[in-house]
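so i finally got all the pieces together for this one. its two components total, 718 residues if u count the protein bits. some of the lines might not be protein, just check the labels. i wanna see the whole assembly predicted at once instead of chain by chain like last time, that was a mess tbh
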Amino acid sequence: MKRIFYITLLFIFSSIIVTAQRAPSLNSPEVHKDHSVTFRYFAKNAKKVLLDTEILSSSLEMIKDSLGVWSVTVPPVKPDIYPYSFWVDSIQVADPNNTYIFANERFKRSLVEIPGDQPLVHELQNVPHGKISYRYYNSTTLGSTRTLLVYTPPGFDVNGSVKYPVLYLIHGGSDTEETWTKVGKAHLIADNLIAQGKAKPMIIVMPYGNVRPKPMPDFTKDVVNDIIPFVESNYPVLTDSKNRAVAGFSVGGGQTLNIGLTNTDKFAYVCSYAPYTATEEYKKNFTNWSPNPELMNKQLKLFTISVGTEDFLYESVKQNIEMFKGKGLNLQSLIVPGGHTWMNCKRYLAATLQQLFNE
Amino acid sequence: MKRIFYITLLFIFSSIIVTAQRAPSLNSPEVHKDHSVTFRYFAKNAKKVLLDTEILSSSLEMIKDSLGVWSVTVPPVKPDIYPYSFWVDSIQVADPNNTYIFANERFKRSLVEIPGDQPLVHELQNVPHGKISYRYYNSTTLGSTRTLLVYTPPGFDVNGSVKYPVLYLIHGGSDTEETWTKVGKAHLIADNLIAQGKAKPMIIVMPYGNVRPKPMPDFTKDVVNDIIPFVESNYPVLTDSKNRAVAGFSVGGGQTLNIGLTNTDKFAYVCSYAPYTATEEYKKNFTNWSPNPELMNKQLKLFTISVGTEDFLYESVKQNIEMFKGKGLNLQSLIVPGGHTWMNCKRYLAATLQQLFNE
């Protein structure tokens, strides 16, 4: 009995130590039925805590209770997934109680998902699910072993008797190879659209587009010389250009133009989202560019550029669109409300997936 | 020309806006050749910044330079992967410049990897790689769709002509289904040991062990009634108990004992790492427990409990070990230096993988 008593004491003691070291576990973010959201953060000695979120255009002051828990409730929000962080006396922090993190190299922000009354295209629904695989490949271009993510659709036929088309999908600047799934929910958008018969079953390959300190054009080489061969030797895929697409956002949208438009023999689908094009590679490719529009329009089954009217790159993207149209290319533009955000990225991708591989 | 000039201006202007909003990109953590590590954090107005790391038993004060970058260099460190965070005027933050995050529900910490002069068992090496897949399964026990991770070994035979044994591997309290890969590098440990012929090719299933607000025993039911059937109907696996193992750390180490020892007809391998056993489920299972040691010793090909001598649960785990041995069970204990850490978890797992499925 004495032994059990001491064990019990030990556990109580351990629990006290752990509790003293850690902040309390809080329910944050708490999404209410009316789509309002309460955010909470524990900081007993902080002087000021702000909620910074892409839901609102300005920060919200949070209020501290007697236990040191700061909170604020945002009024009903349009259902979507939004990044947010706390500014605690000028220090930006992710929400410690939330496991959903914006995969990024430069900041740590959290994500809050407000579900729709009817499930949105990016939500987990009761449909057959594909899977995301984390793979290593050897890049001879970059001289290193790198990670990429591969989405395979529901019912993926591992016997190789069915062959799939492939979308290469590139993240934005300072994002990582995980951003399209963790933030962009590419896998769920694909699951849902495939279940509705609105998208073809396809494989989606999400590489890591940051090749620094190597120059950016090395990523174009990596895609063409390393990633595509890796995918085509490890997955049952269709290898003609009509079954290969490239898409990307921001810096990845610029990379999409560089990769796709210089390789129209390899990619029949080029879909660029809010491209950032102030790069040497883009300048080299498209300044004084003299394409053969008849050939390219024949090769390209789909060439789209998407952007939001509040995107900080909106004017620049409009210039890109005019330039490509001016060269005689068949270009569809998708202009929607919203800014340079991952809320818009999901919308762009959902539109693209319904347009791919329809021939 | 005018248009190009304005576009250029726009980009410069945009860059300025972005730069003003963001902290500078820093090289942190910077691991030097001699295994010392420099950590950096930008906070122009902070009064005090501390580095908190599992490398050292106490925090280190960081020094601010004229640009507002705080830094400190830790002298040569024993190669391993260590969690760390910054305490900025009493606020704990992960390193914004580091994408490697400790997957956890309660805190945000970063990870720094110090490579060995000879590659360690958890390091990315030039060997054939398995893959990690993120899967959804329907839990009838819990009434929800949940995520689990599945490691399949190099050369995984998708045709189903080779069938594999399966290890079910459970994270610690407040960890997530990603912690065994993101922090524990289970996939790389398996890759390396399989390449050396020291571990059998196997499938490793990493579920999410936190079933709150449901009671903890529902996880035991979820494993037996939902997860195992999901795995066995989706992967080419061997389904006898001699080809099924369960292992876990801390709270997951306690769950391992609960799941494994009440189902010795299903699991011939039960490997518990620094188990936390102050739970109702453990109490219910093992207080006044009267096992049949002959039968259990016949069913169990391996029963191990591992712990570090500086683990805060060390005394408790020693009592567990004595209790199980007192009941006549063949139990191997692995007592090593170190605390209740993921540095030790990797060591425990590496030991286990070499002992599994050897019959």
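The radius of gyration of chain B is 23 Å.
The first helix of chain B runs from residue 2 to 21.
anyway lmk what u think
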